[in-house]
Here is the input.
Amino acid sequence: MNDKELVAHQALQYVSENMIVGLGTGSTANYFIDALAKRNKEEKLNVRAVSSSVVSMIKAKEAGLPLLAMEQIKEIDLYVDGADEITSDLTLLKGRGYDLVREKLLARSAKKFIVIADESKIVKNIGDNFPIPSEVHPFAWDLIKNVLIKKGTGDIRINAAKDGYAITSCGNFVLDFNYTEKDAEKLNAFLSQTPGIVEHGIFYNLAHGALISNNGKIREIWKT
Ligand code: 5RP
Here is the structure.
């Protein structure tokens, strides 16, 4: 079992009968989806899942997990997802994918949000390894870029084929920026208060715990 798979399996211990479980997006979250589907079937747990992206929805469907639409939930019992960066106070950077809005909605509505990742995701400051993504209304991207450029450097995200702009599952563009400000609390407030930004990649004060694996060993970080 590799490190990502290991923490995904460890997260299963927080699942119990009749729970509504939010499914994250990414390679680590995929291991959790497979493991959850297997356990749900074998132990007849009656778990229902809500996905954070079309990709995780397809993955869950293929694995045989019963799914609820976002519109059908008011809150969820557990959300398990990966992250691109994690600090010691459990601030996260997410959004290398294209589903920031759904991911943050699930994180906010979860009674318990557990991050699963390998040690490579641990950073001192958010933004150390990746630019911070902001999902923006398409008509406003240049206006918002003009605001963000005063605080750092960055540009609109280009799609994988490199022949146009990347479009999120909500139909928005993404601005990836490196900021001179390193304080995640201040950056979170700034980005949250900037009109036209639909959602951004800093998950501040949302995660309750993290399961971190390193060469086959797991350590846990919990919010105090
Ligand atoms: C997607 C995310 C993912 O959780 C993050 O990119 C981690 O991916 P992986 O588990 O493949 O390393 O935030 O928006």
Observations:
- The mean pLDDT is 96.
- The pocket of ribulose-5-phosphate is lined by residues 24-29, 81-84, 94-97, 99, 103 (CB under 6 Å).
